[in-house]
TrEMBL record:
Keywords: Repeat
Annotated ranges, domain Teneurin-like YD-shell: 9-98
NCBIfam families linked: Rhs_assc_core
Species for this entry: Myroides albus
Pfam families reported for this sequence: TEN_YD-shell (PF25023)
PANTHER family named among the record's database cross-references: PROTEIN RHSA-RELATED, PTHR32305
UniProt name for this protein: RHS family protein
InterPro entries attached to this UniProt entry: Rhs_assc_core (IPR022385), T6SS_VgrG/RHS (IPR050708), TEN-like_YD-shell (IPR056823)
Length: 124
């Protein structure tokens, strides 16, 4: 079970078998590290600019399945689920058009965000 920051999509705690793990995130809410109650590192990840796993240290690939804020990794497809559509980290874009069209602010309709160091798209 995961707990998220109030009113958002940023995971802050994982509870597994009555043990709590604190999740550390970067400035955009992307999970990067996890620590157990004793303060020992249990998971660490580095992502490239499209969100692909560059480095993953932990028990398994899905120790923490969250990627960019609002994204959940579907290990069977390799895609990241974003509530309204799927993101493909290999291409750096979504596999379907933005459901709100051009109102989403991206003229490609399949793009993630204009600047991944400043923007997020938690809904897809």
């Amino acid at each position: 079970m995961y707990r998220f920051e109030q009113g958002g999509f940023v995971p802050c705690t994982k509870i597994k078998k009555a043990k709590k793990h604190s999740i550390l995130v970067d400035h955009l809410g992307t999970p990067t590290q996890m620590y157990d109650e004793e303060g020992l590192s249990t998971w660490y990840v580095e992502l490239d600019s499209f969100g692909n796993l560059k480095l993953n240290k932990g028990d398994s690939k899905t120790e923490c399945p969250f990627r960019y804020q609002g994204q959940y990794e579907d290990v069977e497809t390799g895609l990241y689920y974003n509530r309204f559509r799927y993101y493909d980290p290999k291409d750096g874009g979504y596999i379907s058009q933005d459901p709100i069209g051009l109102a989403g602010g991206n003229p490609t309709l399949y793009g993630y965000v204009h600047d991944i160091s400043l923007w997020i798209d938690p809904f897809g």
